[in-house]
Amino acid sequence: MRIIVSSSTVEPFSLSDITGIEKPEFSILDEKFLQEIRGMETKNLAAEMLRKLIEGEIRTRKRRNLIQGKTFSEKLEQAILRYHNRAITSLEVIEEMIAIAKEMKEASDRGEQLGLTEDELAFYDALETNDSAVAILGDKILRDIALELHRSIRNSITIDWTVRENIRAGMRVKVRRILRKYGYPPDKQEKATETVIEQAEMLSDIWATE
Questions:
Q1: Residue 12: what pLDDT?
Q2: 27 vs 189, residue with greater confidence
Q3: Closest CA relative to residue 143, chosen from 116, 122, 119, 118
Q4: Which burial class, exposed, middle or buried, applies to 38 when counting CB atoms under 10 A from its CB (0-12, 13-18, 19+)?
């Protein structure tokens, strides 16, 4: 079931009017709200609404965090595809999306636990921290790498290096030097460097206007 509205003629709908859930202001990361969604009688409506909520949260994360944007977007797309192909039921896709929402909350909590800002966490995530060869460095070293990458790149935003290959090449040298300094696995450095550069380009556009 889809709810179609014209933004030019219709006021933003109230979720409490549609679902009976008396919580007009909420976050998809709120456990109580997720439980209320799970308890809705009309499961296809619950699935559609939860999809919209998660898509909105993913769009927000995509603006600053390359890895989280890609990871959660792919997970949601896979769940919805299985649902549309009738491989899973409405209830099952709701459970899968709730699991995605919880993973998103855990990702945000990880940044707080590490003492990293949103942008610093974006560089931490770009380091392929789930790879076993990388994870062996430990959270402290990976955190230190992320902090130095963020500081180094943040200090370079006055240069329009995103459109000048020689500047981008210089940034690659700087990133590789930082990775080597902290003992980042040599066979993982090239991919990490390219991911960090892509993440840096994304944030530089934002930093330039802040």
A1: 39
A2: 189
A3: 116
A4: middle
Residue 71, pLDDT score: 96
Residue 36 identity: E
* Rounded-to-integer distance, Cα 185 and Cα 142, Å: 12
* CA–CA dist 36, 29 (Å, integer): 12
3-state helix, strand, coil in the chain (%, to 5): 70, 0, 30
The average pLDDT across 76-105 equals 94
Whether the pTM exceeds 0.85: the reply is no
Domain chopping of the chain, boundaries: 15-114, 118-207
Q: Closest Cα partner for 142 from 179, 195, 103? A: 179
CA-based end-to-end distance of the chain: 40
Which residues does 117 contact at the CB level (< 8 Å), separation at least 6? 111, 150
Cβ(101)–Cβ(54) below 8 Å: yes
Rounded to 5°, angle at Cα 190 from 189 and 191: 95
Least Cα distance to 188 among 120, 102, 130 occurs for 130
Q: Which of residues 198 and 22 earns the better pLDDT score?
A: 198
Take residue 166 and report the two structure tokens written for it.
């020689």
Alpha carbon distance 174, 81 (integer Å): 41
Q: Which two tokens stand for residue 168?
A: 């981008």
Burial of 90 (0-12, 13-18, 19+ CB in 10 A): middle
